[in-house]
TrEMBL record:
Residues 33-244 form the Gliding motility-associated protein GldM N-terminal domain. Signal peptide: none annotated. Residues 346-430 form the Gliding motility-associated protein GldM second immunoglobulin-like domain. It comes from the Bacteria. This is Gliding motility-associated protein GldM. Residues 433-539 form the Gliding motility-associated protein GldM C-terminal domain. It holds the Pfam family GldM_1st. InterPro entries: GldM_Ig-like-1, GldM_Ig-like-2, Motility-assoc_prot_GldM, Motility-assoc_prot_GldM_C, Motility-assoc_prot_GldM_N. The lineage of its organism: Bacteria, Pseudomonadati, Bacteroidota, Bacteroidia, Marinilabiliales. Transmembrane segments: none annotated. Residues 248-343 form the Gliding motility-associated protein GldM first immunoglobulin-like domain.
Length: 539
């Protein structure tokens, strides 16, 4: 019967509505097994991405080496490879940032910024952003955010435009008859899928809809990872093609040049200067002949070993020739020169504040030995201890040494496992000077009663002292003078004025004298100091 003859009851309408809601929920509920599969695939893709990236870096390194050996011949192909790297790095970075946007807007978490250690054992999805931070994907099955970002906000269209631009740039680097043109076009293909018939109507879908519409987050991430690998593979193919255009057999020995590598061009008197002399290109089937002062050097693995004792200070120049057999049986000769410096052992120890150490405070000191890395220095002090602090040192003296007879900073240097004494310097050690008691930044003179009442108490100030050391007043007495001479003394057991003292301030008349003594202060260096008395006249 038709619906007019059998109208739906309210109950039937409710059941139909619940059925539709159930179908919608089933459509949105992506099976966990499918999500797990995407997680595994994405992890595998990123491992592949790293492998291909490592392979491409090796090709770039080969370009750099070839260019160094023969710049004129390799320049054109080196510049094209640099262009390829800039284009692919830029697009891969955009995709990585797009992944980060998708994850974070889907309530993901940056575990690195949160200080958490990620250890999912394969049970949770994650990505690495451009900085190497681990981003945890909390909603693998999120459908709305990916569609919103990729389709409605147009990120997929932008991505397609960038891929097309990369493909066109790559093809422009190839000859028209290059065999890898078809491979590049296939790897970077962004054409729309073929139309299909759906219920008798042509269903035309775009590349953007096909890849990113109504897909769970982990599927979109996996697709983006796959695109990154396609870009890397296209990069690898075009790099291999560009490198093949260089005559690899000619540039290796196109320009033979003498090279000298010294262990150090700075040598201490009494040590040995050592250098390796060799040709930039090596042929394992024959050894060169290296002459210094017409005497042949010992050859080890194609390198000549030159050693001479450093018996005196100064700059020294040396050189010779390298003779290498040509394929025709003759010899080509290559000249070389080198120089080195020999100096007496010396050390520079510079206190960065002043020429004295102070008790109870960290005293910064810079210590350096010309030609010796800081990590090879051993520094000690005879009075107290010295600690490494970044590139410099901190000295903490143990006892006062006003005349500098018992405080010596000594420096040794490690040369190939052998300790050498480089020098020492004597220092004086003093106590930190006593601070000065002040009210309103004054220690004496005339003060208005209003200004006195406005102050909280007495402060201890270290004037003209370079170190950041603080003292706090712990007690003081105030004696007031008036018409009848000295009155009672009022005491405080802190650095603040008491209520009784403030009451006395209010009664002061112009010309009255206040005298403050018995002032004690405690410093950051752990000492307690009795400070000099101070006095003021009320204006």
């Amino acid at each position: 019967m038709g619906t007019k003859n059998c109208p739906e009851t309210p109950r039937q309408k409710m059941i139909n509505m619940m059925y539709l809601v159930l179908l919608a929920m089933m459509a949105l509920n992506v099976a966990s097994e499918v999500l797990d599969a995407f997680r595994v695939v994405d992890s595998s893709l990123m491992q592949t991405f790293k492998s291909v990236d490592s392979k491409n870096e090796q090709i770039y390194a080969s370009f750099a080496q070839a260019y160094e050996e023969n710049p004129q011949k390799v320049k054109e192909w080196k510049e094209k490879s640099d262009q390829v790297k800039a284009l692919t790095d830029s697009l891969n970075l955009k995709i990585t940032r797009l992944k980060e946007e998708l994850v974070m807007k889907s309530k993901g978490t940056n575990l690195t910024e949160e200080g958490e250690v990620f250890d999912s054992h394969g049970e949770q999805s994650f990505i690495l952003n451009a900085k190497g931070d681990t981003l945890l994907i909390k909603k693998d099955d999120e459908l709305n955010i990916p569609s919103e970002i990729m389709i409605r906000l147009g990120r997929a269209e932008d991505l397609k435009t960038d891929i097309i631009a990369l493909k066109e740039a790559f093809l422009a680097l190839l000859d028209e008859d290059s065999p890898i043109r078809a491979t590049i076009e296939q790897e970077l293909d962004t054409s729309d899928p073929k139309s299909t018939l759906k219920e008798g109507v042509a269903d035309k879908r775009t590349w953007e809809i096909e890849h990113f519409d109504n897909k769970p987050l982990i599927a979109v991430i996996t697709l983006l990872s796959k695109m990154q690998i396609d870009i890397q593979n296209a990069e690898s193919n075009i790099l291999s093609y560009l490198y093949s255009q260089i005559d690899a057999s000619s540039f290796k020995f196109n320009k033979l040049g003498a090279r000298v590598i010294a262990k150090s061009s700075y040598v201490l008197e009494g040590d040995v200067y050592r250098a390796e002399v060799f040709l930039a290109a090596e042929d394992t089937t024959q050894q060169p002949i290296i002459l210094v002062n017409n005497k042949p050097l010992k050859i080890v693995d194609g390198k000549g070993i030159y050693e001479v004792p450093a018996t005196s200070s100064g700059n020294f120049e040396w050189g010779g020739i390298i003779k290498y057999r040509t394929p025709e049986g003759g010899y080509n000769t290559y000249d070389f020169t080198e120089e080195y410096q020999v100096s007496k052992p010396s050390v520079t120890i510079s206190p960065t504040k002043m020429n004295v150490f102070y008790m109870g405070v960290p005293n910064p000191v810079s210590i350096s030995v010309p030609g010796v890395p800081s990590e090879n220095l051993e520094v000690s002090i005879s009075n107290g201890r010295i600690e490494k602090n970044g590139k410099d040192y901190i000295v903490r003296p143990k006892a006062e040494d006003i005349n500098g007879r018992n405080t010596k900073v000594s420096v040794n240097a490690n040369f190939d496992g052998q300790k050498r004494f480089m020098g020492s310097m004597d220092f004086r050690v003093k106590q930190v000077p006593d601070p000065e008691a002040t009210i309103a930044e004054k220690s004496s003179g005339v003060i208005r009663k209003e200004d006195l009442l406005a102050e909280d108490g007495i402060f201890a100030a270290l004037k003209d002292f370079d170190f950041d050391l603080k003292f706090v007043v712990t007690q003081f007495d105030i004696t007031f003078t008036g018409a009848g001479g000295y009155n009672n003394t009022w005491s405080s057991t802190s650095n603040r004025f008491t209520n009784d003292q403030r009451d006395q301030f209010r009664q002061l008349a112009p010309g009255s004298i206040i005298y403050i003594d018995n002032i004690f202060a405690h410093g950051d260096d752990g000492t307690d100091r009795e400070l000099s008395p101070i006095s003021f006249k009320i204006r």
